[in-house]
Structures are given as C-alpha cells and as structure tokens.
Amino acid sequence: MTTKILIPYYSAYGHIYQMAQAVAEGASRVEDTEVKLVRVKEFGEVKDAMSSQEYYVKAQEMQSDIPEATHDDLRWADGIIWGIPTRYGSMPAQMKQYLDSAGGLWMNGELEGKATAVFTSTGSVHGGQEATALTSFVPFMHFGLIYVGLPYGENPEQLTAEANGGSPYSASTIAGPQGGEQPKEVDLVMAGRLGERVAKISKALKPLR
Ligand SMILES: Cc1cc2nc3c(=O)[nH]c(=O)nc-3n(C[C@H](O)[C@H](O)[C@H](O)COP(=O)(O)O)c2cc1C
Question: In a 10 Å sphere around its CB, with 0-12 CB exposed, 13-18 middle and 19+ buried, how is residue 37 labelled?
Fold first, then answer.
C-alpha cells in the first residue's frame, strides 16, 4: 500500500524550498512512498510589500509550479512534514492561517495519528530555530499529530560547535542575516534523513489508524 507524504511549506526567499526538496528526496527513498510538495498561500499584503525585492521575486518564480496547499492535501496525507521559516522566533502568519482555517479537520480528528515533523530556517544562528520547532509542536498536538524529531544517533552531525542546522526538534538551516547563505550539505543531508524517518514511521502507523 502506498504511503503518502505531504510537505506543506512557506518560503519567501527559497531556503525552505531547497530544504523541502531534500526532505522530499529522503522520503522517496522509502519504498512505495508518494511525496507531494505544496506551498502555503502567500498574503497579498506581503506580496505587495516584497515585490520590489529581487530575491523574493526570484524565489517565488522558482516555486511557481508548486501547487497551493489545500485542506484536502492534509486529509490525503499519511504523514506531514512542515517547512516553517522563523518569523520573530515562531511560525509565519501564512502557516498559522493555514492551520487556523483547518478547524474542521481538528474537530473531526482527521489528522489524528499521522506522523509529523518540522524543518525550519532562521536568518541568524540564535534567531529561533528551536523556538520555532517547539512552538509549532503546540498546535500539532491539538491536531493529534505524532511528532517525529531528529535523533542524534542518526544525525551525529548535530554534535558540533559549528553554525550548522539541525537540532533534536527539527532539521534546519541558517539563511544569513541578509538571506545570502545557502543550506549547507550537512543541513540537506539531515533534512533528507528526516524525510526518510517520517516516511518509515508513517508507513508503520498507517495500518494502526
Ligand atoms: C518578518 C520577518 C521576521 C523574521 N524573524 C526572524 C527571527 O526572529 N529570527 C531569525 O533568525 N530570522 C528571522 N527572519 C529571517 C527569516 O527567518 C529568513 O528570511 C528565513 O528563514 C529564510 O527562509 P526562506 O528563504 O525560505 O524564506 C525574519 C524574516 C522576516 C521577513
């Protein structure tokens, strides 16, 4: 039986989009897995405000063939891996809007028992990667999702004093204060392993739901 993995993400400047592709590649390593990338709807106000920024415009063009996330995508999925860049240490309003408008799914328990995980990105090293993952955990528990972390055993690269991504709570990357950094190879590797882990766990949980 096919296991369906959904990757809903929001990416203004493309870093989370790159991480999403690595997560997707990792998930697809698991046999009989179908992976779908969807982007969370942008706000008109943000589009207007950012349309003079070259990086924003380019990153949006790059993602133009990715479909917009719907609630039916969440119903479809056996496992959900969220791409959530930091905004003031927690999730962007665009992502919150997607969750807040999914009250019907919450009420009917439609996401209960599905595996879930987070990958994130910040401008700076201490700008809130762990805070973003941990605060996202709160609504995900209301939906009854089963949170999957990024264990040290599988991801020994986390044990470092270097400014890399990755924590026990999520895969991650550092975009740089001006967004000029790119995800490091090690960040992409850990993102891939997270995708694979969620796909494996989703497959195991599917018959139990
Ligand atoms: C309104 C706003 C708030 C932000 N807040 C933070 C923050 O609290 N900490 C931080 O390190 N970066 C912050 N950033 C930087 C973003 O996290 C960074 O641009 C993002 O992770 C890059 O991912 P993307 O290229 O996929 O958009 C903020 C950016 C914006 C636009």
Answer: buried
